[in-house]
Structures are given as structure tokens and as C-alpha cells.
Amino acid sequence: MPDFLLVLLAYMIGSVSTAVLVSKRFYGIDIREHGSGNAGATNTFRVLGKNAGVIVMAADILKGFLAVKLSLLSQYSWHPTPSVQFVNLQVILGIASVLGHIFPIWSGFRGGKGIATLFGMILGIQPLVAVSLVGVFLLMLLATRYVSLSSISASIAFPLLILFIFREPELSYKIFAIGTAFLVVLTHHKNIGRLLNGNESKVPIFKKRKMRRDKEEA
Predict the structure, then answer these.
(1) Distance between the two ends of the chain, CA-based, in angstroms?
(2) Largest CA distance in the chain
(3) Nearest by Cα to 67 from 25, 9, 3
(4) Which EC number applies (predicted)?
(5) 1 pLDDT more than 80
(6) Are 63 and 13 in contact (CB under 8 A)?
(7) Looking at residue 78, what is its pLDDT?
């Protein structure tokens, strides 16, 4: 299949706004009119709860993963070892899916921030890097309970892992990793402002556990 058709298909896959579909179909609302206004997993968790949030996050990750795997339909997939062209195509397909998530053609070009889809892309290209980023995200989330800060930390860790730990040889992937860190920080500028002002929302990770303990002590 021609590369430009693969890129277009990757964008179309990314444009499937799961948060909008779930919120409208099962809850009768448009998630973009509530909470932070983003059509992503984090806002879905906050507005619609854990069940809807898990579904949206899993689907958004799958979008990035599937978009990258479209590279298997290209002419470069027949090489015994991944070529520069193959890796470049994977990066382009992943970026197309993330752009589709942020600017979905099916939902008036109003989407989310693309973090989950970006993770799916990385998972499709380098699973070990993806697992490492999950570790960074979870450690920061457990320590601070800020989803935004956890996302920012993982994004900054991405180029550091690529450059110094995994030593990725492809220049395009290095540039992508560095650009991703800047993009995530840029798209989270409002969250950064709230973090500095001390009014960013926290995820109540230990809330249920604390409530259960309080009931037992009562």
C-alpha cells in the first residue's frame, strides 16, 4: 500500500474520538463540555469515572499502536532487519494518529492532548521504552497524585531514555522524542500554571482505602 494512504489511514484511526463516542453514547453528554474540556482519558476519568476512563484510555492507546503497525503493510516491511525508511514510516504513522487524536476530523477537530495515543505509538515501536515510561508515570503518580505532572515527567523521560539508556540510532526517532517532550510540556501549560499555584486536581488514589480504614476504626 502506498505510504501516503497509510499515513491518511493512521490519521483517520487517530481521529476516532473514543471519549466523545463513549460520553455521548452511554452518558448522554459531550465530554468536551465538562471538566477540562479535553476529549481524553484523564478528563473522562474525572467526569465519568473509572469504568469509562479505562475504556477510553485503552482505546486511545490502541489507536497509536495500530497506526504504527500499519507500517507492516508498506514495502519496507519485507526487509529482514528494520531499515531507516521503515522506522521513519513508523514515526510518521504514529505522529499522524496523534494529530488525528488532537484534531479529529470526525469530531470537529476538537480532541484531546494525545498522551495515551502517543504511548500506544511508542509501545508499537519500542515496547521496552514504553514500559519504562509507564514506570516513570506510575512512580510520579503515586508520589504526587497529579496525572498532569506524571504525564509531563514521563514525556521528559522519553528523550532521556532514547538518548542515554537505549541509545536509539535513528535520528528521526531522536528528534521525535525531543519534540514530544516539548509538545507535551506546551500542551500542559495550563496544568503547569495550576501546579505552580497549588490548585491542580489530584487523583484520589488512596481515598477508598482511607475511607475503608476510617469505617473499620469507627
Answers:
(1) 66
(2) 67
(3) 9
(4) 2.3.1.275
(5) no
(6) yes
(7) 76
- Residue 158 sits at the vertex; the CA angle it makes with 98 and 139, to the nearest 5 degrees, is 105
Q: Which residue has the cell 496523534?
A: 98
Q: Which of 183, 191, 116 is nearest to 146 (CA)?
A: 191
Q: Report pLDDT digits (tens) over 79-97.
A: 766 688 898 999 999 999 9
Identify the residue whose cell numbers are 477510553: 56
Give pTM, 2 decimals.
Answer: 0.84
pLDDT digits (tens, 9 = 90+) for 160-175: 999 999 988 888 889 9
User: Using an 8 Å Cβ cutoff, are 89 and 3 in contact?
Assistant: yes
User: What type of residue is 48?
Assistant: L
Other C-beta atoms closer than 10 Å to the C-beta of 66 total 18
Domain residue spans in the chain? Answer: 1-125, 127-218
